Amino acid sequence: MEQAVCCYRHPDRETGIRCTRCERPICPECMVSASVGFQCPECLGEARRTTPAPRTVVGGTVAADPHLVTKILIGLNLAVFVLVQALGDRLAGDLSLYAYCDPVVRQYCIGVSEGPDQWYRLISSVFAHQEYWHIGFNMLTLWWIGAPLEATLGRARYLALYLISGLGGSALVLLLAPYPGALGASGAIFGLFGATAVFMRRSRMDMRPILILLGLNLFFSFTWSNVSWQGHLGGLAAGTVIAIGMAYAPRERRDLVQWGTCAAVLAATLVASWIAVAQITA
């Protein structure tokens, strides 16, 4: 009489199916569909451990939700906007750069120039908006431009690009604007514009749409009142340089070049901010 074959994980269950990799008998509860036949849970787990994680075109990890960081950034901007609307101009002032020192009444000198404990304003100003049209336009643009860029870069590289672009905008505002009370994510978003143009160029795509859109935004930056063209240009420059480092990094030294570029641009923005504050307080 032929002996019954039982599942190796459930000895009380007879089966006629074997794992295609290890050939151990498996019952229906243990069967995992494979490209050919079925695998047991142990073989499947081993395959997942030894198979390299999928990567984006620049070496980032492919995430289950490729737009998660963009959603979180939009949520943070909206949350800060609601708080500003609820608490008024005082909160907006606490978040903005406001590094200008009145040469006559120096006790009203507030903001980044007050000391290192106020340097949080370099990044807090990137998340603050006061007008409905401003937050609406910026968040729509962030979703439209940022979501596909996040899928291209991966979460870590995308977040670094966004934040350093925002800091680049703050730095140029401090250097060039006489009354740097700028608020908003526009500098960071211009950095995403620059990065999108770089990757479209790298992929040999038709760049006319992004160049037209960027040109229109730059035109409005210089012609509309109460718009910080300094912040826009600073973010654009920082984002473009970072994207060049990410897009054209050699594969064998990709991480070193990419993160080295981010570190170099970050250092440049901090040095520029320090110089600007020194000029203001001199």
TrEMBL record:
Keywords: Hydrolase, Membrane, Protease, Transmembrane, Transmembrane helix. Signal peptide: none annotated. It comes from Streptomyces fildesensis. Its main location: membrane. The keyword Transmembrane helix applies. GO terms for biological process: proteolysis. This is Rhomboid family intramembrane serine protease. The keyword Transmembrane helix applies.
